[in-house]
Amino acid sequence: MKLITISGLDGSGKTTQLDLIEEKLKNKFQVKRFHMVTFSIANKILKKKTSSSRSKAQNKAGFFGIFLRKIAIIIDVFRFRFYYLVKTHENKINYIIVDRYFYDQIVNIKYLDSKNSWKKKPFWQAIVENQLIEPSLKIYLKITPEKILERDRKIEQGKDYLINKNNLYDYFSTKWKLTKIDGNNSKPKIQQKINQLI
What is the DSSP secondary structure assignment for residue 27, as one 8-state letter? Predict the structure, then answer.
């Protein structure tokens, strides 16, 4: 069984490319699609109604909100590990494709927790990185904030949000050895590059 993840900024085209991957694979294989925000225990506890494909990104949170996210991501990494190791075999799933995998969750928490240095690795991050299922293919759709703002989709958080998040993604994508794909290219070119990697 293979796990494919795409990480990147809001508006980078992750969902579009995951739709294309799913369409390509589901004709021959059993495919399970995940959106980690919807899967998150924090989302279930707070009973937030979020779309599985489009969810509003947060650009600020209080101490409790950040603390909850840190606890939730630890719980979620074990929940997902159980699902991956047990449930997927029971359901004979060949591919799991994930939007906003734990890499994106870590970046989001780091962004929200601006009082602490994001280059330090706190206990919650160490646990998540040690326990997450290593994807077979982990893509970072690298795109400039300016290119995102040129597109039709409006990013409510604004340019500064994108720039700061972009800095985090650039730093951590190297640490996590994500496969970088130029998201500034056209959708067909990005799709072609991804298809070569699958």
Answer: T
- Determine the Cα–Cα distance for residues 158 and 166; give it in Å rounded to an integer: 13
* CB burial of residue 50 (10 Å; 0-12, 13-18, 19+): middle
Alpha carbons 171 and 119: distance in angstroms, whole number: 9
- Collect all residues with Cβ–Cβ distance below 8 Å to 143 and sequence separation of at least 6: 8, 9, 12, 13, 182, 183, 184
Q: Please give the residue range of the domain that contains residue 15.
A: 2-197
Burial of 103 (0-12, 13-18, 19+ CB in 10 A): buried
**pLDDT tens-place string over residues 95-117:** 999 999 999 999 999 999 987 78
Q: pTM of the entire structure?
A: 0.87
Do the Cβ atoms of 138 and 14 come closer than 8 Å?
A: no
Q: Record the tokens describing residue 156, joined without a space.
A: 């409510």
Calpha distance 138→115 (Å, rounded) = 29
Give the domain CATH number at 72.
3.40.50.300
How is residue 69 annotated by DSSP? H
Q: Collapsing DSSP states into helix, strand and coil, what is residue 10?
A: coil
Question: What's the structural domain count of the chain?
Answer: 1
